[in-house]
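If you are new to this repository, start here. Below is one unmodified record pulled from the training split, so you can see the exact layout before writing a loader.
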Amino acid sequence: MIRPITPSDAPAVLQMLHALVAEDKGTIASTPQSLRNAMGQSLLHGVIHPQGMALYFPDYSTHRGQPGLYIQDLYVAPQARGTGLARALIAAAVQHQSWGARYITLGVSPDNTQATRFYAKCGFTFRGYEMMILESPALESLK
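And here is the target side for that same chain:
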């Protein structure tokens, strides 16, 4: 059963995040408390299933003049891949969001061909530009 995440799900969410970043050979700095804080401040929303999750937050396009939904993390356990769970998690995210999202945005590594094919099959298209990030210490130089 897919349901909205609650602060008590933070340990399970973190476990799935660790599994997700391990596949990309990345790291994760989130903690159960930081996840609970983000949920409590409505910075992070999500839906969860015992074998997967989708974490998302509100987006807004000035070009479209409409609210959207940005999927930050989509994870499905390896044994549940190919079962339709990923598509169901995306659909549940749309159903459970409360701000009237009219589109979904997400990021995907061009090297992740399996995910790219899945998203294309769902109807996602590339936007035509790369996302960039500014972190500390460069971020601090703007203050």
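Two things worth knowing about this chain: The mean pLDDT is 95. The CA atoms of residues 39 and 45 lie 6 Å apart.
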